[in-house]
């Protein structure tokens, strides 16, 4: 943080729009600037008098969790004709001035926007001048694909990340682990978000002021976290239940089999450190690599191995060659991805 203010000061004020009105900021052009904003100021004043619903994310006390209602002010369009858009823009600019020591920090508020045809995560973030991470984490999106047109999404008025106290996906667990592992997130506000489906309970989240994705988190979000360990190969057997070619019985296959000619180079799918190198009756010659953020990969049925335990690798470094060692039906690479010790389907992580 930059030392101006404490992140614990962030509070969501119910019943009004936080942030100061444009035209009253120092150096805003004096009387002419104020007069030019009278229609906007009058509109906002009426909203204040009426009471703006939904800015308090701590839902109604006493209500059953699944019956609580969450109403957010509606952002109708992404242009300056919309007073809500102007308010969000003013808050975001005030936030960046606060970072430079020239303004007060706006309080966190949440708005609703209905996805339009042609909208994308990139265009929405660029138009609002906030990181993609702010929109993605507030809406519990693990990838950059917005919901279908006509679907409402939530928009914050200041940059930051929204971290679930009970993560449900690998991506959310990755973000939450930064809080627990290294304390790099400075938490500012605990609040409740509406359920993702009718009848479900709301969920507790933390707001991380000015938080953004790390390089690894951004690649995971963009779904380019892992490289293809064997470019030019084809998949002969996928992840999941299959009939064993050796026993004829159904067995779970914890990785994918990639077929390529004997001796083809096998590369590290992600930067990391060699955790183990060895030979197994089933897996044959294998390499296990530890990666950032709790990921691990395993490469089996190898031919020649070119790395040793403790070696540091970059994504794309050659580590071995395709072989036929162990219990194998022919030259191929058996490839596994694990997250926090649990196997994942590599096809969900690798673009081929």
From TrEMBL:
SMART domains: LysM (SM00257)
Sequence ranges assigned to domain LysM in this UniProt record: 111-155
A molecular function (GO) term: metalloendopeptidase activity
Name of the featured protein: Putative metalloendopeptidase
SUPFAM superfamilies xrefs: Duplicated hybrid motif
């Amino acid at each position: 943080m930059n030392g101006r203010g404490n992140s614990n000061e962030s509070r969501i004020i119910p019943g009004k729009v936080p942030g100061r009105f444009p035209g009253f900021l120092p150096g805003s052009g004096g009387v002419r600037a104020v007069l030019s904003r009278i229609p906007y100021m009058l509109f906002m004043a009426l909203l204040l008098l009426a009471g703006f619903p939904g800015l308090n994310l701590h839902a109604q006390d006493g209500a059953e969790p699944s019956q609580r209602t969450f109403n957010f002010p509606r952002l109708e369009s992404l242009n300056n004709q919309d007073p809500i858009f102007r308010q969000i823009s003013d808050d975001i600019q005030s936030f960046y001035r606060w970072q430079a020591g020239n303004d007060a920090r706006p309080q966190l508020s949440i708005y609703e926007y209905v996805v339009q045809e042609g909208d994308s995560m990139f265009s929405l973030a660029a138009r609002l001048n906030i990181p993609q991470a702010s929109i993605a984490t507030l809406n519990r999106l693990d990838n950059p694909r917005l919901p279908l047109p006509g679907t409402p999404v939530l928009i914050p008025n200041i940059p930051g990340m929204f971290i679930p106290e009970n993560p449900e996906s690998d991506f959310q667990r990755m973000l939450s682990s930064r809080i627990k592992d290294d304390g790099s997130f400075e938490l500012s506000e605990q609040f409740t978000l509406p359920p993702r489906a009718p009848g479900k309970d709301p969920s507790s989240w933390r707001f991380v002021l000015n938080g953004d994705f790390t390089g690894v988190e951004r690649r995971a979000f963009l779904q380019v976290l892992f490289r293809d360990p064997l470019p030019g190969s084809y998949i002969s057997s996928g992840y999941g239940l299959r009939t064993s070619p050796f026993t004829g019985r159904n067995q779970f296959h914890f990785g994918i089999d990639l077929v390529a000619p004997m001796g083809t180079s096998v590369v590290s799918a992600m930067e990391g450190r060699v955790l183990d190198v060895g030979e197994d009756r089933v897996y044959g010659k294998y390499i296990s690599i530890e990666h950032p953020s709790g990921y691990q990969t395993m490469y089996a049925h190898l031919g020649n191995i070119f790395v040793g335990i403790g070696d540091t690798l970059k994504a794309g470094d050659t580590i071995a060659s395709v072989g036929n060692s162990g219990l194998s039906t022919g030259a191929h690479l058996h490839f596994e991805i694990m997250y926090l010790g649990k196997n994942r389907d590599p096809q969900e992580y690798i673009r081929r």
